[in-house]
Design goal:
The complex is a heterodimer. By secondary structure, chain A is of the alpha/beta class. Chain A folds into two domains: 163 residues, Rossmann fold (3-Layer(aba) Sandwich); 126 residues, 3-Layer(aba) Sandwich (Rossmann fold), CATH 3.40.50.920. In chain A, 35% of the residues lie in helices and 20% in strands. In chain A, strands 3-2-4-5-7-6-12 form a seven-stranded mixed beta sheet, with helices on both faces. Chain A has a five-stranded mixed beta sheet with strand order 9-11-10-13-14, sandwiched between helices. The longest helix of chain A has 14 residues. Chain B is an alpha/beta fold. In chain B, strand 3, helix 6 and strand 4 form a beta-alpha-beta unit. Chain B is globular. Classes of the chains: A alpha/beta, B alpha/beta.
Chain lengths: 333, 281
Amino acid sequence: MIKPGQTVATGENEAASKRPTLDAPFGKALVEVGRRRTNVVGLTADLGKYTDIHPFRDAFPERYFNVGMAEQNLIAMAAGLARTGFIPFCTTYCVFATRRAYDFIAIACAHSRMNVKIIAGLPGLTTGYGATHQGIEDLALMRAIPNLTVVDPCDATEITQTTHAIADHDGPVYMRLLRGAVPVVFDPAAHRFVLGKGAPLRTGSDVGIVSTGLMTERALDAAAVLEKEGIHTAVLHIPTIKPFDQEAVCELASSVETLLTAENHVVTGGLGTAVADTLVAHRINTPLMKIGIPDRFIECGSTQYLQAKYGLLSDHLVATAKAQLGVTPAAPP
Amino acid sequence: MTPKPPMNDAAAEIARLKAKAKNLRRHMLSMIEGQGQGYIGQGLGIADILAALYFHELRYDPARPDWEDRDRFILSTGHYSIALWAALAEAGILPIDELSSYGADGSRLEMSALDSTPGVEVIGGSLGQGLGQGVGMALGLRLAKRGSRVFVELSDGELQEGATWEAAMAGSHFQLDSLVAIIDCNGIQADGPMVLAVEPVAEKWKAFGWDTQEIDGNDLAAILEALRVARATNRRPKAIVARTVPGRGVPLIEGKERAHFVRLERGEWDQSMRQLESAHD
């Protein structure tokens, strides 16, 4: 029996945001892209309406192909279409694209820089369906493939801009997708996504938070709380995980007392590792604490419950920052 | 472009293609002369199919290997590259005198073909990846309203890869009648004779909705007839199940315990060349 206040894993409660939302920003942007680029085609592996590509399907039915539950063939067909001059956007979930079709992404797409865009839903803990559906290590897997561009956008504004940007970029791209009612964190008039570039969102000399994907929203919330307590907090948003903007990280690391990384991903092999590699390579000894999903498979549960339990909410960032600065004792892991 | 013979001169055409196939086999034996090893068994086995494709069926321009309206040939078994290099050289896409660099460090004629070499459409070699890319290409060429066709060579061993059947379903679902899969059934794989049963091969392709023919893949008359039938524009993809003999044309290699990777001593190589030259075909 459900207890009062207890949440359940329905898959309908992914947005833990108080901000306004926009429905299916990826699909809407892809329709715009499809209008200006007639060689864009849409593919999915039986997850069209669950990966927000349905607006493209409705606008361009003759350019939309559902290949069924066959992710290896999804990627292989996309590579073949790219070789005949098309720009395939293919959608599935992170777990299926990366775990099941890895060899196809590496050899059929990345090796020869095929112009294939892989759009992958349910990144990290944005689903309550457990380890089979939670793409917790996809950034690590994709970052290891040569030639591949890897993007983890923060919000609806950035998803819209990223969809256009990757269509205009000639080469293979893996993009994490936030679907459904996606929070609007960035002002579309002010924010400009640039592929391969970090975005310094605020400055501060005490703590520097480097974040990617939906964690940037939490980083901004955490920074506002810390600021009220007199802790000056910078936020560097890194939407492009590969190629990695080392320069922006070095600049931030040299101007703060301590660094935090925040990612909706295991703490091994993703953003935190990329930042740590950067610090080592440039002999920068700013302390670093990585916030992310621990090195274990995660159970089923509502996304609010899982994100709170595994430290992906802003209060955990606040507590970790204070502990790093020695303001409070270290938080429990 | 490939010269097309008069239709009434089938016997002369077969004789011409037999001579081409023999040239391909000569090239292949020459290519392993120095190193004494390679995937020569498989290469000799599909020499007749490649002769029929490159010198009879495929539409291409040797001077422009990336011509947009060319027919595509995908070698899914990248390790059969020895045969592809021979065919591309005989076709005038690669220089014949480059063949001797096969498999050497720094050579673009790799042991497993990469698409950076002219005439290579996709990277084969990670087995099971070729057909799906062929499906995508055939779909793309249809969308682009080009008349080009797509031929995919794959092996009986690749029928053990699940992705092959994902692609087979898609080829049929998307009604890609310009797509021709040629399944080289030579009965061997890395660990020896078929380690996991793939038969009945033809029935499987039929069940997946492909127009399927089963032929002797070393009989040029049968190959030409199968390719002719496969031209049908009937909204169904085409499968040609080609039974081939690894090492075909060189009895010494044919007799090498149906080996996946053949090594020849110097004396054996000389004998192989003599056997090839003295054969009647």
